[in-house]
Amino acid sequence: MSNTSPSVPIIWQLSCVQFDDELSLFGTLLKNIPYKPSDSDSTIRHAIEVARTFIAEVWDNQEITIRVGNQEKNLFTDERGIIQASFKTEISNQDEIRVSINGIPIPFFNDFPIFFGKSNYPLEVISDLDDTVIVT
After folding, report:
1. Which of 48, 88, 42, 44 is nearest to 68 (CA)?
2. What is the pLDDT of residue 7?
3. Continuous segment of H or E residues that includes residue 53
4. At a CB cut-off of 8 Å and minimum separation 6, what does 84 contact?
5. What is the dihedral of CA 111, 113, 115, 120, to 10 degrees?
6. How far apart are CA 75 and CA 62, in angstroms?
7. Where is average pLDDT lowest: 2-6, 56-60, 98-102, 104-108?
8. Over 50: is that where the pLDDT of 133 sits?
9. How far apart are CA 18 and CA 119, in angstroms?
10. Within 13 Å, how many C-alpha atoms sit on residue 66's CB side?
11. Rounded Cα gap, residues 101 and 112, in angstroms
């Protein structure tokens, strides 16, 4: 898929972390589905499409509704399309998270888990290995 596909808003790189009694949610609202690599892509096509993902068009200042469990919030994305919210709730899986615009569900575009549940460890480390270098 490339950025030339029809305009279908998606939530890009959504992360939801469950703390004791609070869920923190962070992601980006994009206007189009970004490129997803395929084994059949040539090296040149892959390089061009990856470069395009760095200039993906965000949906800024867009009103959205986020529903987590039985709680719902209306908010606006910022000027970079960023979605950031906290909910005073505890959920057990990502199926309890919904984002919509005017009642229309917005899909998540992740090939990795978006929900990180609460653990019973007294200390946790969150690390981020930048896979952009590995993938590109």
Report:
1. 88
2. 62
3. helix 43-53
4. 25, 26, 78
5. -170
6. 8
7. 2-6
8. no
9. 9
10. 24
11. 23
